[in-house]
Specification:
Blueprint (H helix, E strand, L loop, with lengths): L10 H18 L9 H12 L9 H29 L3 H12 L2 H12 L3 H26 L3 H4 L7 H35 L7 H10 L3 H16 L1 H4 L5 H11 L9 H12 L13 H44 L5 H21 L2 H12 L3 H26 L9 H34 L8 H10 L3 H28 L20
Helix pairs in contact: 1-14, 2-10, 3-6, 3-8, 3-9, 3-12, 4-6, 4-20, 5-6, 6-8, 9-10, 9-16, 14-17, 14-18, 14-19, 14-20, 15-17, 16-17, 17-18, 18-20, 19-20
Length: 510
């Protein structure tokens, strides 16, 4: 299939398009504040957060959070490594991986709960499935970017497996390790969020603490979580991985959450997610097809289309808010702007921001502001601006400034931002698909995106409807990913690094 051909926009033109889209989205977005006194609620929240109650932290929730992340990321990264080898050559593998990563972990968990119940199996697979698709894509990119000089000196007749193991794998092993470590950080965030739907991780107790106003307990849980994220390089190492994996397996809950997993899986695949009109019917029967269309049409008009529209509105506003936030925040971590003393504090702030899951930020903001798109926009913008700002700060530190470079605002506006703008757009376009996926799941919190209809369908045990809606979110994410890649090619920024662990040009460490 020929590549998607688009007119070649400039940086300014693309920026204007996205800004105009966000302004248009603002006209139809629900941004009202429903809370009667949000400032009073915020003061109570901050008052509790500054007095953490560490004695109330449930120790096993911390253990389960780490265990689910270790096993889920390990399984996903292992599968992703195997899929990465044929990824570039097989359209089928690329399609499967795109589908796996297009469905958010929460949606995977909601589906898997119908088979495995509220169990460790659900939590581990909910992380492993999308992470397998993500890791396969990134590992394949790392392999493609690797130096091929070692392959040229192999003796004639060397097999493909031997060539990969001895000539290519040593060259990419460090990049694999760095990216997998970052993916483990993401897995910790995902595991935390899975607690909000009932799995026994720290998120379960965090949601309960926030809902009941026990902000001291919530603060303690958050600080423990940040400590786990901040210290992960100390306890997630090659030498400790076997111990972590074994300890995680031993620490899992004994129950699997379902009495007969095999029967539940067969029923799920052959009955629950099959559209109701096609159950026990001939799919070639015209009457059955007519009933299928009559069943599907109201789902399309009343749920898929309005949910997709609200998801796009939320994602577009959040993307532009992320852009503005990242441009404002990256000087906090850049040496030329924040100085020797301010830079560590700025980096710490952005690490904390990027380590806080968007879903949890949105949940807290909903408690303060009430149900609308505003808490979701704030959550997405804060989290993603922290990530992009952190990365731009690293790039800013790698810039070589001339001796007579200006200072202050002139240095920012005329020397730094213009030189970083291509990389800035590359990061935004890369995060676009991720922001869309997150926008969809915020429906579980009551925002009228596709996740709202998914959650309603699952709560009513209409799993066939839920499957259609989740498929719609996957197709949207795949479409945005394809458009993002096409725009990066059109802007000629598709070769710029977009992975958090990708080394900078000229940098000595990732």
């Amino acid at each position: 299939m020929s590549a998607l051909r688009l007119p070649r926009p400039g940086y300014a033109a693309l920026s204007r398009w996205f800004l105009a889209g966000a302004l248009a989205a603002l006209l139809v977005a629900d941004l009202h504040v429903a809370s009667l006194n949000p400032w009073a609620d915020l003061r109570r929240l901050l008052g509790g957060l500054v007095r953490p109650d560490f004695l109330s932290v449930e120790g096993w929730s911390v253990v389960y959070t780490v265990a689910f992340a270790v096993l889920g990321v390990g399984l996903g990264a292992g599968a992703g490594f195997l899929l990465a080898i044929p990824f570039a050559r097989s359209r089928t593998v690329r399609g499967v991986c795109a589908f796996l990563r297009a469905i958010h972990e929460l949606f995977w968990a909601l589906l898997l709960m119908q088979v495995f119940g509220l169990s460790a199996t659900t939590g581990i697979l909910a992380i492993a499935l999308p992470y397998a698709g993500i890791c396969a894509k990134v590992y394949s990119e790392i392999i493609d970017e690797a130096d091929l000089s070692a392959l040229r000196v192999l003796p004639a007749g060397t097999g493909a497996v031997s060539a990969f193991l001895y000539a290519r794998l040593p060259d990419v092993a460090a990049s694999f390790r760095h990216y997998t470590l970052y993916r483990f950080e993401c897995g910790m965030r995902s595991t935390l969020v899975l607690g909000f739907i009932g799995l026994p991780t720290m998120g379960f107790h965090l949601e309960s603490a926030f809902r009941q106003g026990r902000y001291g307990e919530a603060a303690a849980l958050l600080l423990v979580f940040y400590a786990l994220i901040g210290s992960r390089r100390l306890w997630v190492r090659g030498a400790t991985l076997p111990v972590l994996a074994l300890a995680s397996l031993l620490a899992l809950p004994e129950t699997v959450g379902a009495t007969d997993v095999g029967a539940s899986l067969v029923r799920f695949l052959t009955h629950d997610i099959v559209p109701a009109p096609l159950r026990n019917a001939d799919v070639l029967d015209l009457a059955a097809l007519a009933r299928l269309w009559a069943w599907f049409r109201p789902i399309l008009t009343d749920q898929v289309l309005p949910g997709a529209g609200q998801t796009l509105v939320l994602a577009q506003i959040a993307l532009v808010a992320t852009a503005i936030g990242a441009l404002a925040l990256f000087p906090l971590t850049a040496r030329r702007f924040s100085g020797r003393l301010g830079r560590p504090a700025g980096r710490l702030l952005l690490v904390v921001v990027r380590s806080t899951p968007e879903y949890m930020l949105a949940y807290v903001a909903l408690q303060l502001l009430g149900p609308s798109m505003l808490p979701a926009i704030l959550a997405l913008a804060i989290h993603n601006a922290g990530i992009v700002g952190f990365l731009l700060g690293r790039h800013a530190d790698d810039l070589a400034y001339r001796a007579d470079a200006p200072t202050g605002l002139n240095l920012y506006a005329y020397e730094t931002v213009p030189r970083l703008y291509g990389q800035f757009l590359a990061y935004l376009l890369y995060r676009w698909e991720i922001i869309l996926r997150e926008s969809a799941i915020f429906g579980i919190l009551g925002v009228a995106t596709l996740g709202f209809y998914v959650d309603a369908a699952i709560s009513e045990l209409r799993l066939d409807v839920a499957a259609v809606l989740i498929l719609a979110t996957a197709l949207m994410a795949i479409g945005i990913d394809a458009l993002s890649r096409a725009l990066r090619r059109a802007l000629r920024i598709d070769t710029l690094p977009t992975r958090l662990s990708a080394p900078l040009p000229g940098a000595t460490s990732p």
